[in-house]
Amino acid sequence: MSETTTAFDVRHPTEGVSIIDVRGDVTPASEDGLGDAFAQASEAAAAGVVINFTGLDYMNSGGIGLLVTLLVRAQRSKQQLAAFGLSDHYRQIFELTRLDDAIAIHDTEADAIAALGTEK
Amino acid sequence: MSEQPDMATEPTAAETPAEPTAAETPAEPTAAEPTGPRNADSWARPVDRLSAKDSEKGFDPTSVDGRRIAGPIQGFGKMWQKTYTVALADADVAPQQVIADWKKHYGEFWPKGNRFQAPLAGLQPGEVGLITGKAGGLKLSTGVLVLYSDDESFSFMTPEGHPFAGMITFSAHGAAPTTAQVQLLIRAQDPMVELGMALGGHRKEDQMWIHTLTQLAHHFGVEEPAVDKQVVCVDRKRQWRRAGNIRHDAVLHTMTRPFRRSPKPAADPDGDVKET
């Protein structure tokens, strides 16, 4: 298994929307890093939080569980959670696990932001 | 009412998985081949509905066949994350060996009362395992999809009708000692199960996983394993729009089975009638 540096960077491309850029792995070991990034993103995101999976290298089933808990946190704050940049493989995993019932998947960052009701 | 089943220790022929296949040891990609995600083979292939046709006596594949997957998002009740761990103290065993043995003997570690029919191919991604047992004194037939499986973990996802909607992940990590873990991320599938959870279902579930990890530890020679439990209520809200899940309830499905029509026998090319 290759060594991977995992990082979750938060940016605010437009008012009301935050983006978490995922780099590396999403596994149960990411709980603190992704959780902290979500807290930071959520604070400044009235409309919602978008997760950018373009830099995702690896995700296991524990990572899916982690996303479910983030979704609950977003719903509790009455925020939407969206995603873009998923490879075909992980898009299929979202569909298989029915995560896509609650986390909208978009092709691009612009699509995701627009869907949250805010123009970039 | 609908409690997590107690599980049996009656190994059957079908619980013994086939010898490892090529799918378990994917070949190294050559320079000319696209690599894709490094764990792509560990995931089940996308399916809209589950398929379960063959079963041993006592199992009911119709409780799973044609059903959709139902994860924690699709369930009704409060969402719980339950984590059970056991340190395999004094057992010189690597996480990979723990998972390999766990997959091979999965149903043997369950408490008596219920049974697990492992897929013939073993607990491989995309395979379906069947469960039979009792919940609240009533017979229950259901199953699970093997969602993910690698050297250090494997996960099940539940179908519609299973008492819980969610994921169960079995993993092993660390060294000296290796720790084995079961983690559930679940909601009760419907209001009847939610009620059952409040009336002793949580306790029964604890017993089941503590027993499972204790048996696993015994398998590796640990004499007095101590199982730790952590429970977090991830979401206290019940999803009332999912109350209709009760139409799939596995206990109700099992109770009403005698009153449902059996599939028509299929005729073979010679005109004889085959029982299906």
Task: Report on the architecture of this protein.
The complex is a heterodimer of chains A (120) and B (276). By secondary structure, chain A is an alpha/beta fold. Chain A has one domain (7-113): STAS domain (Transcription Regulator spoIIAA), CATH 3.30.750. Helices cover 38% and strands 32% of the residues of chain A. Chain A is built from four helices and five strands, in the order E-E-H-E-H-E-H-E-H. Chain A has helices spanning 31-43, 61-76, 88-96, 109-115, and strands at residues 7-14, 17-26, 48-59, 80-84, 104-106. Chain A has a five-stranded mixed beta sheet. Chain A is globular and about 30 Å long. By secondary structure, chain B is an alpha+beta fold. Chain B has a domain at 62-251: Alpha-D-Glucose-1,6-Bisphosphate, Chain A, domain 4, CATH 3.30.530. Chain B contains three helices and ten strands, in the order βαββββββαβαββ. Chain B has helices at 95-104, 191-219, 250-256, and strands spanning 79-87, 115-117, 128-135, 138-149, 153-157, 164-173, 179-188, 227-235, 266-267, 273-274. In chain B, the strands form two sheets. Chain B has an eight-stranded antiparallel beta sheet with strand order 2-3-4-5-6-7-1-8, with helices on both faces. The longest helix of chain B has 29 residues, at 191-219. Chain A binds chain B through residues 1-2, 28, 57-62, 64-65, 68-69, 71-72, 75-76, 87, 89-90, 92-93, 95-99, 101-102, and chain B through 36-40, 42-47, 68-74, 79, 81, 147-148, 150, 153, 155, 157, 167, 169, 171, 183, 185, 234-235.
